[in-house]
Specification:
Immunoglobulin-like; 4 helices; globular; 240 residues; alpha+beta
Protein backbone atom coordinates (compact mmCIF):
# COMPACT_ATOMS: atom_id res chain seq x y z
CA UNK A 1 0.00 0.00 0.00
CA UNK A 2 2.72 2.41 0.91
CA UNK A 3 4.58 1.39 -2.25
CA UNK A 4 1.64 2.43 -4.42
CA UNK A 5 1.41 5.79 -2.69
CA UNK A 6 5.10 6.47 -3.45
CA UNK A 7 4.78 5.54 -7.14
CA UNK A 8 1.78 7.76 -7.86
CA UNK A 9 3.51 11.11 -7.02
CA UNK A 10 6.46 10.11 -9.22
CA UNK A 11 4.14 9.40 -12.16
CA UNK A 12 2.45 12.74 -11.68
CA UNK A 13 5.82 14.53 -11.69
CA UNK A 14 6.95 12.81 -14.89
CA UNK A 15 3.66 13.61 -16.62
CA UNK A 16 3.83 17.29 -15.57
CA UNK A 17 7.41 17.57 -16.81
CA UNK A 18 6.51 16.08 -20.20
CA UNK A 19 3.64 18.51 -20.64
CA UNK A 20 5.88 21.47 -19.75
CA UNK A 21 8.53 20.39 -22.26
CA UNK A 22 5.93 19.98 -24.99
CA UNK A 23 4.58 23.45 -24.32
CA UNK A 24 8.09 24.91 -24.40
CA UNK A 25 8.90 23.27 -27.74
CA UNK A 26 5.67 24.50 -29.28
CA UNK A 27 6.48 28.13 -28.48
CA UNK A 28 10.21 28.11 -29.32
CA UNK A 29 11.21 28.56 -32.99
CA UNK A 30 14.48 26.75 -33.66
CA UNK A 31 16.43 28.06 -36.65
CA UNK A 32 16.76 25.66 -39.58
CA UNK A 33 19.93 25.01 -41.54
CA UNK A 34 21.24 27.24 -44.32
CA UNK A 35 23.75 26.19 -46.98
CA UNK A 36 25.80 28.23 -49.46
CA UNK A 37 27.14 27.02 -52.80
CA UNK A 38 29.28 28.38 -55.62
CA UNK A 39 26.66 26.94 -58.02
CA UNK A 40 22.95 26.15 -57.62
CA UNK A 41 22.49 23.43 -55.00
CA UNK A 42 20.49 20.45 -56.20
CA UNK A 43 17.04 20.01 -54.64
CA UNK A 44 14.24 17.46 -55.03
CA UNK A 45 10.70 18.09 -56.24
CA UNK A 46 9.69 19.34 -52.79
CA UNK A 47 12.56 21.83 -52.60
CA UNK A 48 14.58 19.88 -50.06
CA UNK A 49 18.31 19.66 -50.66
CA UNK A 50 19.60 16.36 -52.05
CA UNK A 51 22.70 14.43 -51.04
CA UNK A 52 24.60 15.80 -54.05
CA UNK A 53 23.44 19.32 -53.25
CA UNK A 54 24.58 19.00 -49.67
CA UNK A 55 27.95 17.72 -50.87
CA UNK A 56 28.32 20.70 -53.24
CA UNK A 57 27.77 23.23 -50.43
CA UNK A 58 30.89 25.17 -49.45
CA UNK A 59 32.24 26.75 -46.29
CA UNK A 60 34.51 29.13 -48.23
CA UNK A 61 33.17 31.00 -51.26
CA UNK A 62 35.65 32.20 -53.89
CA UNK A 63 35.23 35.55 -55.67
CA UNK A 64 34.38 35.87 -59.34
CA UNK A 65 37.76 35.93 -61.15
CA UNK A 66 38.94 39.47 -61.76
CA UNK A 67 36.05 41.06 -59.81
CA UNK A 68 35.22 42.13 -56.28
CA UNK A 69 32.03 40.03 -56.34
CA UNK A 70 30.96 36.75 -54.73
CA UNK A 71 28.17 34.78 -56.39
CA UNK A 72 26.29 33.01 -53.58
CA UNK A 73 23.67 30.30 -54.16
CA UNK A 74 21.69 29.86 -50.97
CA UNK A 75 19.42 27.08 -49.80
CA UNK A 76 17.62 27.18 -46.45
CA UNK A 77 15.21 25.02 -44.51
CA UNK A 78 12.78 27.43 -42.89
CA UNK A 79 11.02 26.75 -39.60
CA UNK A 80 7.50 28.16 -39.57
CA UNK A 81 7.84 30.49 -42.56
CA UNK A 82 4.69 32.17 -43.80
CA UNK A 83 3.75 34.15 -46.87
CA UNK A 84 5.32 37.59 -46.83
CA UNK A 85 8.70 39.29 -47.09
CA UNK A 86 11.68 37.09 -46.29
CA UNK A 87 14.96 38.77 -45.40
CA UNK A 88 18.44 37.33 -45.84
CA UNK A 89 20.76 39.14 -43.46
CA UNK A 90 24.57 39.02 -43.40
CA UNK A 91 26.33 39.68 -40.09
CA UNK A 92 29.99 40.18 -39.27
CA UNK A 93 31.39 39.83 -35.79
CA UNK A 94 33.40 42.88 -34.82
CA UNK A 95 34.96 43.00 -31.36
CA UNK A 96 32.51 40.43 -30.06
CA UNK A 97 29.45 42.19 -31.47
CA UNK A 98 27.45 41.05 -34.50
CA UNK A 99 27.10 43.92 -36.97
CA UNK A 100 24.66 43.87 -39.89
CA UNK A 101 26.53 44.24 -43.18
CA UNK A 102 23.73 43.87 -45.72
CA UNK A 103 20.11 42.78 -45.92
CA UNK A 104 18.39 41.34 -49.00
CA UNK A 105 14.59 41.29 -49.24
CA UNK A 106 12.54 38.63 -51.00
CA UNK A 107 9.33 40.62 -51.12
CA UNK A 108 7.26 38.06 -53.03
CA UNK A 109 8.06 35.05 -50.86
CA UNK A 110 5.02 32.76 -50.94
CA UNK A 111 5.89 30.83 -47.81
CA UNK A 112 6.92 27.21 -47.46
CA UNK A 113 9.51 25.04 -45.80
CA UNK A 114 12.41 25.74 -48.18
CA UNK A 115 14.12 28.64 -49.90
CA UNK A 116 16.53 28.62 -52.86
CA UNK A 117 18.00 31.75 -54.42
CA UNK A 118 21.05 33.47 -55.86
CA UNK A 119 22.67 36.61 -54.46
CA UNK A 120 25.58 38.83 -55.50
CA UNK A 121 27.74 39.88 -52.58
CA UNK A 122 29.50 43.05 -53.71
CA UNK A 123 32.60 44.61 -52.24
CA UNK A 124 30.82 47.95 -52.45
CA UNK A 125 28.21 46.68 -50.00
CA UNK A 126 30.76 46.02 -47.31
CA UNK A 127 31.87 42.48 -48.12
CA UNK A 128 35.59 41.70 -47.90
CA UNK A 129 37.83 38.72 -48.48
CA UNK A 130 39.03 36.55 -45.60
CA UNK A 131 35.99 37.42 -43.52
CA UNK A 132 33.38 35.07 -42.04
CA UNK A 133 29.74 36.10 -42.30
CA UNK A 134 26.72 34.67 -40.56
CA UNK A 135 23.69 34.42 -42.83
CA UNK A 136 20.20 34.51 -41.35
CA UNK A 137 16.80 33.99 -42.97
CA UNK A 138 14.44 36.28 -41.10
CA UNK A 139 10.75 37.17 -41.12
CA UNK A 140 9.00 39.82 -39.06
CA UNK A 141 6.14 38.69 -36.85
CA UNK A 142 2.80 40.46 -36.54
CA UNK A 143 4.13 42.06 -33.37
CA UNK A 144 7.17 43.44 -35.21
CA UNK A 145 9.65 40.95 -33.80
CA UNK A 146 12.38 39.44 -35.99
CA UNK A 147 12.09 35.66 -36.22
CA UNK A 148 15.22 33.82 -37.36
CA UNK A 149 14.00 30.88 -39.46
CA UNK A 150 17.39 29.56 -40.64
CA UNK A 151 21.06 30.39 -40.26
CA UNK A 152 24.48 29.40 -41.54
CA UNK A 153 28.01 30.72 -42.07
CA UNK A 154 30.29 31.34 -45.05
CA UNK A 155 33.81 32.66 -45.47
CA UNK A 156 34.62 34.87 -48.46
CA UNK A 157 37.99 34.34 -50.11
CA UNK A 158 39.95 35.45 -53.18
CA UNK A 159 42.10 32.74 -54.71
CA UNK A 160 43.43 34.99 -57.47
CA UNK A 161 42.01 32.99 -60.36
CA UNK A 162 42.26 34.74 -63.72
CA UNK A 163 39.15 35.26 -65.89
CA UNK A 164 38.64 32.61 -68.53
CA UNK A 165 39.39 33.67 -72.10
CA UNK A 166 36.39 34.02 -74.39
CA UNK A 167 36.11 33.56 -78.15
CA UNK A 168 35.70 37.32 -78.55
CA UNK A 169 39.01 37.93 -76.78
CA UNK A 170 40.76 35.50 -79.13
CA UNK A 171 39.13 37.14 -82.17
CA UNK A 172 40.18 40.66 -81.12
CA UNK A 173 43.80 39.62 -80.55
CA UNK A 174 45.91 40.06 -83.72
CA UNK A 175 48.80 37.59 -84.13
CA UNK A 176 52.31 39.06 -84.20
CA UNK A 177 53.00 37.63 -87.68
CA UNK A 178 49.84 39.37 -88.91
CA UNK A 179 51.17 42.70 -87.60
CA UNK A 180 54.44 42.15 -89.52
CA UNK A 181 52.50 41.27 -92.67
CA UNK A 182 50.41 44.45 -92.39
CA UNK A 183 53.57 46.55 -91.99
CA UNK A 184 55.09 45.08 -95.16
CA UNK A 185 51.86 45.67 -97.04
CA UNK A 186 51.87 49.35 -96.03
CA UNK A 187 55.50 49.73 -97.21
CA UNK A 188 54.65 48.19 -100.61
CA UNK A 189 51.68 50.50 -100.94
CA UNK A 190 53.82 53.56 -100.23
CA UNK A 191 56.34 52.51 -102.90
CA UNK A 192 53.55 52.00 -105.41
CA UNK A 193 52.16 55.47 -104.80
CA UNK A 194 55.57 57.03 -105.48
CA UNK A 195 55.91 55.11 -108.75
CA UNK A 196 52.53 56.33 -109.94
CA UNK A 197 53.70 59.93 -109.52
CA UNK A 198 56.61 59.33 -111.96
CA UNK A 199 54.27 57.77 -114.44
CA UNK A 200 52.03 60.81 -114.20
CA UNK A 201 54.89 63.01 -115.51
CA UNK A 202 55.04 60.86 -118.67
CA UNK A 203 51.36 61.46 -119.21
CA UNK A 204 52.04 65.18 -119.12
CA UNK A 205 54.51 64.74 -121.91
CA UNK A 206 51.70 63.21 -123.91
CA UNK A 207 50.03 66.60 -123.94
CA UNK A 208 52.92 67.94 -126.08
CA UNK A 209 52.17 65.25 -128.61
CA UNK A 210 48.65 66.52 -128.68
CA UNK A 211 50.10 69.79 -130.03
CA UNK A 212 50.72 68.02 -133.39
CA UNK A 213 46.99 67.58 -133.68
CA UNK A 214 46.64 71.36 -133.51
CA UNK A 215 48.96 71.61 -136.46
CA UNK A 216 46.37 69.65 -138.36
CA UNK A 217 44.18 72.72 -138.18
CA UNK A 218 46.77 74.65 -140.25
CA UNK A 219 46.52 71.99 -142.90
CA UNK A 220 42.86 72.63 -142.97
CA UNK A 221 43.73 76.19 -143.96
CA UNK A 222 45.08 74.88 -147.30
CA UNK A 223 41.63 73.61 -148.06
CA UNK A 224 40.29 77.14 -147.58
CA UNK A 225 42.88 78.48 -150.01
CA UNK A 226 41.55 76.06 -152.57
CA UNK A 227 38.24 77.85 -152.43
CA UNK A 228 39.94 81.17 -153.40
CA UNK A 229 41.56 79.53 -156.44
CA UNK A 230 38.24 78.37 -157.70
CA UNK A 231 36.79 81.83 -157.39
CA UNK A 232 39.55 83.39 -159.58
CA UNK A 233 38.54 81.43 -162.79
CA UNK A 234 36.87 83.36 -165.73
CA UNK A 235 33.16 83.06 -166.13
CA UNK A 236 32.49 81.24 -169.45
CA UNK A 237 29.34 83.36 -170.03
CA UNK A 238 31.52 86.46 -170.68
CA UNK A 239 33.29 84.94 -173.69
CA UNK A 240 32.31 86.31 -177.11
Amino acid sequence: MNMRLCIQPQRRWIFSTAVALAALCSTTAWAGELKVGAAPLDVDDNGNITASGRKAAVESLDAVPGEDVWQAHIWAKLDGAGAGPLYLEFYQNLNGTDSLVWRHEEGDFAGGKYYSGELELLGGRGFNKDRIYEVKAVQVSAKGKDLTLASGKVKLIKSGKKPEKTEEDDADKVPEDQDAHDSLAEDDKSSGDKGSDDKGSDDKGGDDKGGDDKGGDDKGGDDKGGDDKGKGQDDPRKQP
